[in-house]
Amino acid sequence: MQGKGIVKFFLVVMGLLAIAQFMYLLPTNRIERQADEYAQRISSTMEEDVQQRAAYKSARSEFLDSVSNTTVFSIPLLRDYTYQDLKAAQLAYGLDLSGGMSVVLRVNLRQYILALSDGSEDQNFKDALELASQRLANAQDDYISLFATAWSEVRGNKTLANDIFSDNASLRDDIGLNDTDEQVVTFLRERADATVNETFEMLRRRIDQLGVVQPNVNLDADRDLILVELPGIDNPARARTFLQAAAVLEFYDVYRMVEDGVNFYERLQQADQYLLAEQRRERGDTTELETEVEYRYDTIFVEGEDGLPTDEVASIDTTEIEAPAEIGPLASKIRIDGNTNFATIGYVKKSDRDEVLDMLQREDVARFFPRTASFHFGREPIELGPDSDLDPNTYSLYVIKQSPNGRVRISGEMITDARSEADQAGEMGVGITMDQEGTREWARWSSSAASDNNR
Q1: Fewest CB within 10 angstroms: 184, 307, 311, 381, which?
Q2: CB-based contacts of 430: which residues, under 8 Å, 6+ apart?
Q3: Which residues pair with 227 in a beta bridge?
Q4: Which residues make Cβ contacts (< 8 Å) with residue 57, sequence separation at least 6?
Q5: DSSP H helical segments within 343-454, as ranges?
Q6: β-strand partners of 315
Q7: What is the pLDDT of residues 4-24, one digit of tens each?
Q8: DSSP states along 128-151
């Protein structure tokens, strides 16, 4: 009898789990049906099967990405669920059942050591790096250990502290000129461990942004390997590019809506009409485009004692313009920011970002903008006020000023130290120390910005 009671208990538990899974499954299937219908509409215009399948997969992924952090199911008084929450709560099928991709990533510690040496050209050092790289292909050891062994074989009478890492000013508090090679290797191992762990955490955040449900990300710290399993992924090329993308720190000026004689509102409108005309030609529409009178409002705010705009409105300039009655593909996806003093050009939904960039980066569309203009989105969604009608997953669109010769004025290579610290208002931020070149350029840059009232 006692055995029957235990069986009944487990049957009840299994029944409750099945009901819970069914509760998660129904709204998930509803969203995925909507994604299928949306993808079918987008891809139905393609004539070739290969293009149609590619467009279908892309459109379906875009739709699911757009709702991944949007509430799609609610249990009153208990909890709201996003699509991502629902998928995460379901049983994990894994690669065997749902397919997907498995990736093994290794942090490039050779390049990291080379960067710590400030790009040393010492031949012994370069030989040790090359030897370690060759042995890494067939060894179970980590790269730092292989480098240490290779260096001991080729160093001659040189030392890592005095001959290799002494040129890097940022390491002077960590590596003394009289430190032994063993001490330097221990320091490199600690730095490498921290770098690998940071990379591991960064990849986990990236995979969350990729929209993959129930991913498996593990760190093999002994060999500096990161093992990634992405169940159900249907675009391996996109995932591979996303995972391998390098993060680079660079500083640029940002265009305002009206600057250097360029009105980006008007330029975006011209590019939009160009794309609209192209669409009309493709569908055989030869009717003349109509226009209507439109008003643009530019709000000017009173400046405070620190030179920054306050919340007090000084004036509102009204400009009458002639605008097209029919909007094109750009205007339908970009909410223009009418304030000419701010760096934000407009706002775009997460699901529309790739399409907007594809249009703006076309060679025939780029001619409407300055040659130095480059469009980019903010890293995080914007913070919305209680009365905002924008989608919760909306990003700011910026236009950065690139140098005509492609040179970056200040890059991460000029930063010798970075740390968390409190500012004058007590808010935590990131403090950085630059080398002499970066410090001089920063002084020139900030002075120029201040004289342009662009602080």
Answers
A1: 311
A2: 418, 419, 420, 421
A3: 104, 218
A4: 39, 234, 235
A5: 353-360, 363-366, 436-451
A6: 300
A7: 667 666 666 666 555 555 566
A8: HHHHHHHHHTT-SS-HHHHHHHHH
